[in-house]
Amino acid sequence: MQKNVSKTKNGVKINFLGEVQKQNIVTMVQNCSTGKCECMSDETKSKIKDMKVHGDDGDVNLSLEGDVSIEEIQEALAKSKVLKK
Prior knowledge:
This protein is α+β, with helices and mostly antiparallel strands. The chain has helices at 22-33, 42-47, 70-79, and strands spanning 2-7, 11-17, 48-56, 59-66.
């Protein structure tokens, strides 16, 4: 799976390409929203105001709104247990 992380005017966007199922990204967002994820620090979580998933299997976009950096999100992606399944 390829993960392209880019800065937007409202936060950060991640484009997942290849072997990715939209439901896995939705699950990852739900885990983060409910505090069940361990992939990002509490400080990073507190910066995120909203998370939205768009697209289909093989081409999924995740938009994160808030004052987060590309580096913070890349670090969280590397730790995500949902993406390593």
